[in-house]
Amino acid sequence: MTAPILITGGAQRIGLALTEHFVAQAQPVIMTYRTRHACIDELEAQGVTCIQCDFDKPDAETGLVNKVTSITPSLRAVIHNASSWDCEASCDDYANLFDHMMHIHAKVPYLLNMALSPLLQNSGDITDIIHLTDYVVETGSPKHIAYAASKAALDNLTKSFSAKFAPSIKVNSIAPSLIIFNEHDDDAYKAKTLKKSLMGIEPGCREIINSVELLLSSNYITGRTLAVDGGRHLK
Fold it and tell me: Catalytic residue among 94, 110, 135, 147, which?
């Protein structure tokens, strides 16, 4: 029996694209969602195990671990995609903002990696932990200071966990810049954003899917960050 892949934040955007990709590959998936979007019913009908999990709630990580371990004795991979885009301009409670960013982007992956590593090791093959970080890990961001700091913490966890879990579990990060626009983004914003990369395109979720597949298929890449930024670092 094929061990499932756990994807956090699997009901929207990149997380949903990854979930649908693995379903199409007949790869079992366990995903978490905060809000029950319309896609959840369809995913459940396709055999996806969908777990409601609000990581802002106390002991959410423990509850998720208990549910996952009750469902399966092993995991093929854990993909940390759950994220928050809150920023200083929309929240003047900076202490709470910083704690929230560090919790969702660093503490939650840290606790889940520690608790779920036995399930990853139970598969009998090399397995994977993949952290979705961000291009701003390299540059910082004056408009998203706490967010950038928390994603940098997650990037650092990649290095520590790769050393801790080798050779049975590979741990890597994927650091995207623009992948897909939001529905409310206007034409002016889109044009300005597209100019930030060398490639000048909205690449779509397939770029992240391809990066995930590369890491899953490798037996040798660990402790690394794949930059999916269209050459933005050279602009």
Answer: 147
